[in-house]
């Protein structure tokens, strides 16, 4: 690589779908937070 600043020489080795990655990340985080919320509601219900 002669010119390290030339973007044409940096080939994207693994093309990814950014929208799909964002949607999956959002879905996983939403699911995790839903489980945490449900557990907190159950604990509060048991305590009171």
UniProtKB/TrEMBL annotation:
Residues 1-19 have a biased composition (Basic and acidic residues). The chain crosses the membrane at residues 23-47. InterPro entries: YqzM. Keywords: Membrane, Transmembrane, Transmembrane helix. It comes from the Bacteria. Residues 1-22 are annotated as: Disordered. This is YqzM family protein. It comes from Cohnella terricola. The lineage of its organism: Bacteria, Bacillati, Bacillota, Bacilli, Bacillales.
């Amino acid at each position: 690589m002669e010119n390290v600043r030339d973007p044409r020489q940096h080939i994207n080795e693994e093309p990814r779908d950014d929208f799909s990655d964002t949607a999956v990340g959002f879905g996983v985080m939403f699911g995790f937070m839903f489980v945490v919320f449900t557990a907190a509601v159950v604990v509060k219900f048991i305590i009171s």
